[in-house]
Amino acid sequence: MKQRAILIGVFLWWCLAAADGGAGQHHKMGRVGCPHCVNDGSEVSQLLQQFDALYAAFKPKEALKTVLRVLEIEPNNTEALSKASRVYIELGDIIPENETGWQEKRLKQYRIAEDYARKAVQADPNNTWGHFYVAASLGKTAAHSSVSKQIDLADEIRSAVEKAIASDPQNGFAYHVYGVWHRKMAEIGKASRFLASTFLRRSVPKGSLSTSVEYLHKAISLNPTVVSHHVELGKTYVALGKLDLARASLKSSLAHPIQFSDDAANKKEAEQLLRELKDR
Predict the structure, then answer these.
(1) What is the distance between the alpha carbons of residues 259 and 261, in angstroms, rounded to a whole number?
(2) How far apart are CA 239 and CA 119, in angstroms?
(3) Minimal CA–CA distance to 141: which of 156, 131, 132, 153?
(4) Number of neighbours of residue 71 by Cβ within 10 angstroms
(5) pLDDT tens, residue by residue, 101-154
């Protein structure tokens, strides 16, 4: 069994950045990830708006300073706790692989992110983003862990995503994550499952490619212009052998504008996949 046989940590930066569509738009009512929040002119409100603007400008370190200031004022502010988790995940992601000890350094950031996400859930168990970032941080940890650890985390990741959806059925990015999760679980072969059960004494959760399609379509219906939704749907169609549908989804991803920091990479991946499918 390969070390990366179970790629639970597929949540990547697109799950996190895309989850905040519309960043930088400052209205009297609502903030990124908190549409019903009131921008009342208070210090906390202003800091959270500053965070959104800095994060949208791809300045995570500066954004982190503002959200940590909020937490000094209001330690149980759910919005701030969730946004702190998001930033720490990104800070882990941007650690280059050529840096000494990069994996452990990333894991450290992801553990901090997990801690903030769990605090967000404790502060408000009904807030979708706390659960979402629990899933995201655990997924990142899984991607840099042993197969045994990945299997251990699989059920908790699924549970967290389900809670995110239950808290907000309109959270399209949670459907996205669950769609990818189902594909990755479905792609694990019988031999790998047997080895996990026999030697690791772990049962591997089962996924469904048809459910992956369903959830990714749901994500697209809620956020139709997000490039990564279409790319991941294309990958699931490839796994199903539905190549015409795969090509259509991948071409659709190329037609949408770049909105998030990883969209260029997503489009590049879509182009590569289309080249691979050209003669199939």
Answers:
(1) 7
(2) 37
(3) 153
(4) 18
(5) 999 999 999 999 999 999 999 999 999 999 999 998 998 898 788 777 777 888
Give the CB-side neighbour count of residue 226, counting CA atoms within 13 A. Answer: 26
The set of residues, in sequence order, having a beta carbon less than 8 Å from that of 152 and lying 6+ positions away, is 202
> Where is average pLDDT lowest: 21-30, 194-203, 232-241?
21-30
Its pTM stands at 0.81
3-state SS class at 29: strand
Q: How buried is 272 (Cβ within 10 angstroms: 0-12 exposed, 13-18 middle, 19+ buried)?
A: exposed
**Best CA proximity match to 195, nearest among 126, 141, 129, 148:** 148
C-alpha to C-alpha distance for 270 and 280, rounded to whole angstroms: 16
The pLDDT value given to residue 200:
60
Distance between CA atoms of 259 and 244, rounded to whole angstroms?
26
Mean pLDDT (whole number) for 252-275:
89
